[in-house]
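Record 1 of the preview.
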Amino acid sequence: MGDHDIPGLTAIEAEAPEPPSDSTAPRPRRMLLNMGPQHPSTHGVLRLQLELDGENIVSAQPDIGYLHTGIEKEFEVKNYQQDVTLTDRIDYLAPLSNNLCYCLAVEKLLGLEIPPMAQWQRVLLTELTRLNSHLVWLGTHAIDIGAMSVFLYCFREREDILRIFEMYSSQRMMTSYFRIGGLALEPPRGWQKRIKDFIDVFPSRVDEYEELLTNNRIWINRTRGVGILPLEDMLDLGVTGPMLRAAGLSWDTRKTEPYSSYEKFDFEIPTRSETDVYARYLVRIEEMRQSTRIITQALEGMPSGRWTADAPHVVLPDREKMKTQMEALIYHFKIVTEGFNVPAGEVYQVIESPRGEVGYYVVSDGTAKPYRVHVRGPSFGNLQAVPEMVQGTLIADVIAGIGSMDFVLGDADR
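->
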């Protein structure tokens, strides 16, 4: 296969300095190739500029910005409750995680106390979101390396999760189900049975993924010892999430800085020490098992009570009350048309998303719209490690390496 036959790779320039006339050494050949932004294995519009010596990577430079949405600026022209819909679209594989982080930040400014039932429902649904995201990652990562069956298996379970989300919110992906003050709607009838039916079967599905991959010689050869990056370099570059834990650092915000009642759940932080693609795969597989533990605990111990805070100036009133109480109707009208004022101040909230630490920095000037919202996306930080991770490897190892990072370009180009 020639240089122009590699899908998604475009030869830009081939430079070879002339060797000295008395030299008998072979002439060095360097080539600059574009991988993407349309390459299927970049999982989005990422452009990698690769400098090659044969098939060996001399240097690599990620080029982002092809999916720039301007979401951070859009936050400033919508009221706080409307902004929840924007957070879904930052990381479209973990929308509820972004819902949660933003809502927690604004709730800190408002000083709201969220009822236990709403907190536990948030935990349950964000862990289902983690499973959903990891399933997409595993299926696409496997198909990049040539294991097609795993892709079909993973999307079989993902479909079940999306149907649960649809049951809760009538939306499969952009659910916007978390709201400032609690949940958008009361949990639907029959949610316990639907989730229990799924979670009882899911551990056996993870076993199937492992039967296909964990001891597969081809999978091991393509992932073990590939994409190695020392822990110290990751910390310097701002890498977070499963990549850090695959390098031996037991750091998970759900444990170290618990939020939304995570301190009441019993689960472990999976770690490995090999810091390669195979270790990242094993960490995420175990994370799926731990998320199953958390969902089971939330299902069995779900508190009763309200699903929204007692804050009529922030939370929309029940529709039945609007039919009989003028005060409820007035609150509904004012919240929908004008929003609600948030006390002046600033806050930074961090949670553990499937990709790593996501943080929302929210600044309020006392009005109904944020003065500034900045999102610390884990994909942006993780992408900074690409040059160091792939230097000296082969082109095929670049595919395995960037696949193990599990980035979402909406999370980087927000």
